Amino acid sequence: MNLGKKKQLAARTLGVGKSRVHFVNENLNEIKEAITKQDIRDLVSSGAIKVKEVKGRRKVLRKSKKITAGNVRVKVNKRKRDYIALTRKLRKNIAELKKQGKIDAEGYKDLRKRVRNKEFKSKSHMKTFVEENKK
């Protein structure tokens, strides 16, 4: 007799693959009469249907892939937002310095390039650079 549909029902009911569902040969008539999920659950509890264990090392591999403190990555968008915030702040400061006359047009261009290339870590870092190169 073909019990493919019963096996499919059992797999869906138990939340496992069809290959893991095993029917005990002595109870095939009972299995054949089962038509609902509750019937399948009753057959599992009585031992007519058994669920095979997972083969291989899948569980071991899954256990080893857990995220630990060393595996946490900084998100790209976070880095990008930090870059954007710093760049805007520095460019605003450069424009202010040019407006005040502390740097000329060529120095302005040079500083803009340096900001673009991420040479400055902070506003104070850029200020010290400007003061050193001014003299």
Architecture blueprint of SSEs:
Layout: H1 4-14, E1 21-23, H2 28-33, H3 37-46, E2 49-51, H4 58-64, H5 76-100, H6 105-116, H7 123-134
Antiparallel strand pairs: 1-2
Describe this structure in words.
By secondary structure, the chain is mostly helical. It has two domains: 49 residues, 50s Ribosomal Protein L19e, Chain O, domain 1, CATH 1.10.1650.10; 59 residues, Non-ribosomal Peptide Synthetase Peptidyl Carrier Protein, Chain A (Orthogonal Bundle), CATH 1.10.1200. Helices cover 61% and strands 4% of the residues. The protein has a two-stranded antiparallel ribbon with strand order 1-2. Helix 5 runs antiparallel to helix 6. The longest helix is centred in the middle third of the chain and has 25 residues.
